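User: My instructor asked us to take a sequence, write out its structure as tokens, and then describe one feature of it. I'm not sure where to start. Here is the sequence I was given:
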Amino acid sequence: MSKRMSLSYSFPVFLIVVATATAACLAAAGGGAGRGDGFGVGKGLRFSGSSPFRIALFADLHYGENAWDDWGPKQDVKSDRVLSNILDNETPDFVIYLGDVITANNLPIPNASMYWVQAISPTRIRGIPWATLFGNHDDAQFEWPLEWFSIAGIPEVHCPPETSFAGEKDCSFRGTTRIELMKMEILKNPLSHSQIGPTELWPAVSNYILQISSSKDPESPSVFLYFLDSGGGSYPEVISYAQIKWFQEQSQAINPNSEVPELIFWHIPSHAYKKVAPCRKSSIKRPCVGSINMEEVASQEAEWGIMDALLNRSSVKAVFVGHNHGLDWCCPYKKLWLCFARHSGYGGYGTWPRGSRILEMTEDPFSLNSWISMEDGTKHSYVKLCS
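Assistant: Let's start with the prediction itself. The structure tokens for your sequence are:
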């Protein structure tokens, strides 16, 4: 989620470079359960001996915001610092970019991939594998600044001659699609575990499953990670009925007896988050755990049964979302936990200190703990999500 800054700008001619429930947990985590063969399950992740597996969640980075002035690029540099500090402090085994990686509605030509590359670079240069999913701003239509219609006028936009857009009259004021962003990331980054989901689920694109394999057997799953595109931007903010059916079919196929723990990731919170949310601006009291509770939950536009589908599987332990910059709590919801990440980027609204939600899992027996890791190195809001 992003709210445009109310600032006064001067608009010179500029050049933009285009780059292409505390629930009962299972004691066993893996042994002989379905392996995902033939279902496109990514299998490149694995527990290492007796060491826990740690994931850092980066939500709402909003790179590329106000790209035409000095303020925007300065925020991106600060976001680089957040990522670098947390990656160095936490040394995660895996990173998940939890949507709104960029603010596409502030990008007047199709150069979103340049900012996407900037966002993933701190993770890539450290040799850490990652996966991404889309938020409502990642392919949002360009929003014309009102100031551009004043005396200052609309700044001239140039597409550099070395790009494929050079000379095209329509190179400006059109965006970069979800498909284009995901293709670019996957093709150019061997450390990326992102996938373009089944075409029958489009326009929802970031729908896929990753397996964290057992330390004893690379083919034996210990945890499944499900990524769902919650929409927004170029289409409504919703997890469709088709996506729910896909989740039900795939989870039954790869984990038929619910023997393997499952974690769920998408960007925009479901309506269930509203049901468990602490009252706005009130203190966060147990069983909820968190540190900021400064706004109402901004949920998806509709809900077609995704929470029922999750609750029907005892293997689903928690859901993780972003979108609300002023929330970072986890609250139990019936048999599972609903968690926000933490606003990680300096783009987007809000002045709360930036950070990341960390997930740490053990293999045998399976356990899942979480906390918030801040830019300044402090940690807080420890919560046991499964043990």
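For the description part of your assignment, you could build on this observation: The first strand starts at residue 14 and ends at 15. Try explaining in your own words what that tells you about the chain.
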